[in-house]
């Protein structure tokens, strides 16, 4: 089934856009979820970073009794490794690629294009980056996991962050993803924080530092 996508939220820099972060939210949230983090990152104006926050489509989620909510793909069981919705993930990855192509057509260079995603959004960001021949400037994989270890990570820079007390996506799933990503050739900068399935203030500072290094 072809999904319908609402127009993403776009936050433009004060001057010309010279870089872009495409940031995908988690299950049940929407594009507004990470919008408040932009000023907290306090990125230098001269980097010219545009932020794009897409909205996942509405779809029934098996794990939640078929309740219709915003989701990048279906979740079929509490065990994230069991029967992943590869079709749904591929569909969302194709949508993310279209958003990337729009930024490239607008003059953003591939190495100045960052993919980011929290939880479900991180799965899609990783899936997309691993499948691309020309890699983006990096991926921020936040409180997420790897649905399938496939594709190439050669030349791919990843900021991976996870909560040490995450009851939704176990820390073990994130550590397994790190191992698999490194085996695929990606360079992973790993961070863990004393938090559950959320974002930590120290994580925001670390993300900001990583983004400055990647985009300067």
Detailed description of the structure:
The protein has helices spanning 37-41, 86-105, 120-131, 171-183, 201-215; strands at 9-11, 19-24, 49-53, 58-61, 67-70, 113-118, 138-142, 157-163, 187-193. It is α/β, with parallel strands linked by helices and 216 residues long. It has a single domain, classed as Rossmann fold. The strands form 2 sheets. A 7-stranded mixed β-sheet has the order 1-3-2-6-7-8-9, with helices on both faces. Strands 4-5 form a two-stranded antiparallel ribbon. Helix 2 crosses helix 3 (120-131). The longest helix has 20 residues, at 86-105. The protein is globular and about 45 Å long. The protein starts with 8 loop residues before the first strand and ends with a helix.
Summary, kept brief:
By secondary structure, the chain is of the alpha/beta class. 30% of the residues lie in helices and 22% in strands.
Features:
single chain; 216 residues; Rossmann fold; 7-stranded mixed sheet
- Beta-strand content bin: 15-25%
Query: Could you name the CATH homologous superfamily?
Result: Alpha/Beta hydrolase fold, catalytic domain
- Low-pLDDT runs of 5+ residues are none
Number of strands: 9
- The overall pLDDT, averaged over residues, is 96
> Which structural class is indicated by helix and strand composition?
alpha/beta
Separation of the first and last Cα atoms = 41 Å
Number of spatially distinct domains: 1
Across the major sheet, the strand order is 1-3-2-6-7-8-9
CATH domain class: Alpha Beta
SSE string: EEHEEEHEHEEHEH
Radius of gyration: 16 Å
By CATH, the architecture is named: 3-Layer(aba) Sandwich
Number of helices: 5
CATH topology: Rossmann fold
Shape assignment: globular
The biggest beta sheet, please? 7 strands, mixed
Specify the helix fraction band.
Answer: 25-40%
């Amino acid at each position: 089934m072809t999904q319908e996508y609402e127009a993403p939220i776009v936050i433009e820099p004060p001057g010309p856009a010279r870089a872009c972060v495409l940031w995908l939210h988690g299950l049940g949230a929407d594009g507004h979820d990470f919008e408040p983090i932009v000023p907290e990152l306090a990125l230098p104006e001269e980097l010219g970073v545009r932020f794009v926050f897409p909205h996942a489509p509405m779809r029934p989620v098996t794990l939640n009794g078929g309740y219709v909510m915003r989701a990048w793909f279906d979740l079929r069981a509490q065990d994230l490794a069991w029967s992943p919705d590869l079709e749904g993930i591929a569909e969302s990855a194709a949508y993310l690629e279209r958003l990337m192509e729009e930024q490239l057509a607008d003059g953003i260079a591939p190495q100045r294009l960052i993919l980011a995603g929290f939880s479900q959004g991180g799965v899609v960001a990783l899936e997309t980056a691993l499948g691309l021949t020309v890699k983006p400037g990096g991926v921020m994989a936040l409180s997420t996991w790897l649905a399938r270890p496939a594709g190439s990570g050669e030349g791919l820079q990843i900021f991976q962050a996870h909560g040490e007390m995450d009851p939704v996506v176990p820390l073990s799933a994130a550590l397994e993803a790190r191992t698999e990503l490194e085996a695929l050739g990606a360079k992973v900068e790993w961070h863990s924080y004393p938090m559950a399935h959320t974002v930590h203030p120290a994580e925001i500072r670390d993300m900001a530092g990583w983004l400055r290094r990647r985009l300067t």
